[in-house]
Amino acid sequence: MTIDAVSKEFDVSKDTLRYWERIGLLPKIKRNSSGYRDYSEMDMNWVFYIKVLRNAGMSIEALFEFVELFRSEDNTNDYRKQLLIEQRDLLLKEVEERQKTISYLSYKIDHFEDHTLNYENEKLVYHAKDEKGD
Amino acid sequence: MTIDAVSKEFDVSKDTLRYWERIGLLPKIKRNSSGYRDYSEMDMNWVFYIKVLRNAGMSIEALFEFVELFRSEDNTNDYRKQLLIEQRDLLLKEVEERQKTISYLSYKIDHFEDHTLNYENEKLVYHAKDEKGD
DNA sequence: ACTTGCCTTGAAGTGGACTTAAAGGTTTAG
DNA sequence: CTAAACCTTTAAGTCCACTTCAAGGCAAGT
Question: Per its UniProt record, what PANTHER family does this chain match (chains A, B) (predicted)?
Answer without folding.
Answer: HTH-TYPE TRANSCRIPTIONAL REGULATOR ADHR (PTHR30204:SF98), REDOX-CYCLING DRUG-SENSING TRANSCRIPTIONAL ACTIVATOR SOXR (PTHR30204)
